[in-house]
Amino acid sequence: MRKKISLFAITTLCLLLLSSCGIPVPADKMDYVGEWRAPGMYLLIMADGSVKYKRIKKGFTKSIEAPLKRFNGDDFIVGIGSFKTTFRVDKRPYRDNGRWKMVVDSVTLIRVNDLRKQTSI
User: Fold this and answer.
1) 17 lies in some domain
2) Containing domain of residue 92, as a range?
3) pTM of the predicted model, to two decimals?
4) At 68, which CATH number?
5) How far is residue 106 CA from its own chain's centroid?
6) Is position 9 within any domain?
7) pLDDT of 61-102, one tens digit each?
8) Domains: count for the chain
9) DSSP output for 86-107
């Protein structure tokens, strides 16, 4: 009986780890990579697909640190297993007066650190 429980636990853990794997940022989306900021919002996207996000709005803080799951058009999905968050990209990364900007969830972010050549912090 113990062997069955251990095998079940190991199998479940392996499936959980496999489902939590993210993807690296695709070559055609490399402009998304970097450290982005706006008042009350922070977004870090690494080339290896690691994502860190924090937003303070109306006294509440929402944050997530998880791998990139996929892109859906310009939007991107971040999460582990069935727990995921979709970031609505209203305007994909663009240059404006020499600065990179992107509009996510109606917030204009400015890239303060270009990390397109880095894979981890």
Assistant:
1) no
2) 22-113
3) 0.80
4) 2.40.128.500
5) 17
6) no
7) 999 999 999 999 999 999 998 899 999 999 999 999 999 999
8) 1
9) EE-EEEEEEEETTEEEEEETTE
Rounding to the nearest 10 degrees, give the CA dihedral for residues 11, 13, 19, 25: -130
User: Rg (Cα) of the chain, in Å, rounded?
Assistant: 17
Distance CA 25, CA 78 (A): 12
Tokens of 93: 């990364």
Burial category of 20 from C-beta neighbours within 10 Å (exposed 0-12, middle 13-18, buried 19 and up): middle
Q: Is 81 within a domain?
A: yes
In 3-state terms, what secondary structure has residue 55? strand
Q: 106: alpha, beta or left, given left = phi > 0 and alpha = psi -120 to 50?
A: left
Give a yes or no: residue 66 inside a domain: yes
